[in-house]
Structures are given as C-alpha cells and as structure tokens.
Amino acid sequence: MKIGMNLLLWTDQSKPSEHLTLLQSIKQWGFDGVEFAADNMDSADARAFGLILKELGLGCTAIAALDASSADPASRDRALRQAALQTLKRAIDNTKSLGAEVLCGPLFQGLGRFSGHAPQRDEWDYAVETLREAGEYAGSVGVKLALEPINRFEMYMVNTLADGVRFVKQIGLPNVGLLADTHHGNIEERNVPEAWRQAAAHIVHVHISENDRGVPGSGHAVPKEIFEVLTEIGYDGWLTIEAFGQQVPGLISRLHLWRDYANHPDDAARLGVQYIRQQLGYGGSVHANRSR
C-alpha cells in the first residue's frame, strides 16, 4: 500500500510556483505521494506538477467535487448534468496530466443540494447515466474513477458503501469503483470493517480521515482494525490522508470547521503518516498526540 496526503489541508488552489516547498516537505515526512484537487486546476499547472512530481519521486492521485448550483449529475436539469460531465472531463484530463491513475470524490451528485427526500429513481438514473459517460471517457485515457459515498449531512444520494456498490454495478464499467473513507464510514456504517469486506471487490481508493478531520490516530475513526481489514482483503492501492483545518478559508463553512483540530497545522500529515506506517508495520516512531 502507498501512503498519500491530500493537499486540501493547506490549499484548494495548488500552484507550482507556490507549493514546491510543501511537496518537498511531504516527501521528507515519508509520504509516497499527494492528492490534488483536479477539477479547478489550470491545465498548464497540472502538466507542470506532473514534471515536478517525477523529479521529486512522488506519485499522486486526484480529487474532484461538484457544486450543485452549477454542475450536478443527478439533476433533472439537463444543463446541470452536462455541466457536471464537462467538469469531470476537465478533471480527468488534469488527472492524466498529473500522472495519476485515480480520480476520486463524492461525484454522485452536486454538493449543497438537498431535496428533503431520499434519492428518487430518476435522480439515481440520471447520476448513473452521467457518471457512466464520465467513466467511459476516463477509461479511454487510462484513469479510474473512485466514487465516494459521504455522510447524510453532506449528500443524500449515496451514503453507504453498500449503496455505492449498487451504483457502480449499475454503471458497469471496470474502471469505475469506490472510495472508502473512514470519516464517513464512522458516521454511516454500522460496522465499518465489515462494510469494507462486503465492498472489497469495488474499493479502488481509500481515505484515512479521523472522526474530527484531524490527526489520524488521535480519535476513534481510524483504529487498527481498518488496517487489518485492508490487509485481509488484499487491498494494494493508496491510503490517502484527508484532513482539514483553518488554513483554507473556502472550506471552513462548507465543512463546518469551527475550530483547530491539531496542535500544529502540519500535524495531520507529519504525525498521520507515522501512525499509518506503524499500523502497517512500515516503521515510524512518533505516535499521534491523543491528549491534544
């Protein structure tokens, strides 16, 4: 398994001219790669980052999300579905330019929209149709899509891995699978390890994210059992830390980040990678600070 770090801890607008030092630090801390937000990245920046990553010896994955006011695969408005497809195609192109093979995210619907009801059949079918087309495009350039079920407070279309399995089976493409996230599983699954076992054949990416979005290992959402089940099911992909703090103003209200979740802005990365390495038996000597 490879260990990655999502750059959203520090920025939602990655720039080669501004974040080279950050990438160097991430490499020094012991990560195998990084995860970029690819949906709003300039194509020239994606190509430049691809070259930088090769020089640093870092791998990468990519992530995207959709704003329901402008792009929504599940919308009854055809224009919003088409906008979602175009946004995803741009993210897929950037993923390829970065040198990544996986584009992940909660792509079942545009975020920020709730109907007050469970997903309706036509919404579900619209989302399947839109993401099948995106998946076909991704497959043509050698990219996998990892669709992420997220919690009911952020999305109503797909909240559990079981529903995610049903969704990707309906899409029916070999390059479209699921992202399993410890934070969302902690909220929605009755038994997280068992949910991951049941969905094992479809999991193509993993996010390690603590219950409070802080340092992995400092809460209760990333226990040893998570790593045991990944080993048991033969998972050999990325374990990417997804953590958040106060450094990115645009995410504070969106993710309800009303306080700091670590003693230092870099702790989720520096201590998190060591916690993961310890759990996997890869070495590392510093434990996450459980006392805060």
Topology:
Elements: E1 2-6, H1 16-29, E2 33-37, H2 43-56, E3 59-63, H3 78-98, E4 102-105, H4 121-140, E5 144-147, H5 161-171, E6 176-181, H6 182-188, H7 192-198, E7 203-208, H8 224-232, E8 238-241, H9 249-255, H10 267-280
Helix pairs in contact: 1-2, 2-3, 3-4, 4-5, 7-8
Short description:
This is D-psicose/D-tagatose/L-ribulose 3-epimerase. This protein is α/β, with parallel strands linked by helices and 292 residues long. The chain has one domain (2-280): Alpha-Beta Barrel (TIM Barrel).
- Name the beta content range: 5-15%
- Second CATH tier, the architecture: Alpha-Beta Barrel
- How many domain units? 1
What is the CATH class name?
Alpha Beta
Output the structural class.
alpha/beta
Q: Strand sequence of the main sheet, in spatial order?
A: 1-2-3-4-5-6-7-8
Could you tell me the mean pLDDT?
A: 92
Features:
about 290 residues, alpha/beta, TIM Barrel, eight-stranded parallel beta barrel, 10 helices, 8 strands, about 40% helix, disordered C terminus
Descriptive overview:
The chain is α/β, with parallel strands linked by helices. It is built from ten helices and eight strands. It has an eight-stranded parallel β-barrel with strand order 1-2-3-4-5-6-7-8, surrounded by six helices. Strand 2 (33-37), helix 2 (43-56) and strand 3 (59-63) form a beta-alpha-beta unit. It starts with a strand and ends in a 12-residue tail after the last helix.
